[in-house]
């Protein structure tokens, strides 16, 4: 998994004071026993052994973890997980692993009812944690980035925000406005991609009465409306080159000449822009004026995508469930499925799909939101170049447990019994399909049905 990071250029002016600190490999503990969290577990001398009662897990112990559950090693490049013969097994990147057989871990590790993500540097999470401010969940990468944004605003710089769709560029622009000297003024957000080219000049710079047919009154433009505050131009590169030239002049002279006006009007504007494309490449392609780039393109911050901020994901899901349906619980399988997907639409897509899963759980009167409630296409790449395997493909079947291991199985609690019965009903009694959905071998499931007298429709295999 890609690791957390944010950039601000030029770094010599507003650099990260932690950039030179030594990297600390370890695990991010993101979910345990039904609760989302974000806890750093650093490796000591490249190793970490986990199990129920491990001091590193603190008070949030997982009763479904064995006393000696699994060992994690980092060889300087890759993480390796070895299950130590645990009762409930270890799952790495969606696949159960045999005991005593090291398996490389890249994205998600499941032990009992806990989820961990391998991370090349848990130091930022150790130092900063994850905080919730003004309704936003902010991991260490976003906290560091917002500190840089605050510095830029207070120094009076313009700011360009680069980031993928759905990463929260407007939220960063608002933080830029609120941290600057014009925070008492208006914040005007303009989606330049949504402005028809024929009226872009009129909407941005305004028009005087009689400037064109139907202009019955003076109409202020976005720049006049933002006077004394901040103008946020999202996807500024979508503006026509002629409009870009007029925008550059307005920013340099601090004067705006509305359509049909004889005299310009002075304005005081703090400018912030954003795009999901590289500005320098657009200048080279002739789609962005070079002089405008030098006016608005520095300094630049790059928002890390959601896949580089896993410490925020489980907490985002938990908050969404609590806001939409407080009576529902959050199941391990749902969080794990979300962690395993790339989410090209980032936080925006995650929250939309989470609401869809919550609605599905409510319609089915389920006690918790589970992976089965998530759309198969949610969080996956569009088109043929998918960044993750098709979610409709069944996961590999885990190895069959020995009878000795099965005989040591703990009593089945009510939640587990309900989960198995619901999975059986969902798959029409098909033991193989139900076992795949539950992440266990079909023989293990049959033994559970026999041992605990679980009622199930006839096997359709």
Q: Top keywords for this entry?
A:
disordered N terminus, Tumour Suppressor Smad4, 32% helix, elongated, Helicase, Ruva Protein, domain 3, six-stranded mixed sheet, 4 domains, 461 residues, alpha+beta, 16 helices, six-stranded antiparallel sheet, 19% strand, Rossmann fold, disordered C terminus
Structure write-up:
One of its GO terms (molecular function) is ATP binding. This is Two-component system regulatory protein. Pfam families: FHA, HTH_8, Sigma54_activat. The protein has 461 residues and is an alpha+beta fold. It has 4 domains: 26-127, Tumour Suppressor Smad4; 140-302, 3-Layer(aba) Sandwich (Rossmann fold), CATH 3.40.50.300; 309-373, Orthogonal Bundle (Helicase, Ruva Protein, domain 3); 416-452, Arc Repressor Mutant, subunit A, CATH 1.10.10. 32% of the residues lie in helices and 19% in strands. It is built from 16 helices and 22 strands. The protein has helices spanning 11-14, 123-128, 140-154, 169-179, 200-205, 222-225, 241-253, 279-284, 290-296, 310-324, 332-339, 346-363, 403-407, 414-426, 431-438, 442-451, and strands at residues 7-9, 26-32, 35-42, 47-50, 70-74, 79-83, 90-92, 95-97, 103-105, 109-111, 114-119, 131-133, 136-138, 159-162, 187-191, 230-234, 255-256, 265-266, 270-275, 300-302, 329-330, 368-369. Strands 1-20-14-19-16-15 form a 6-stranded mixed β-sheet. Strand 10 and strand 11 (114-119) form a beta hairpin. Helix 14 crosses helix 15. The two termini are 37 Å apart.
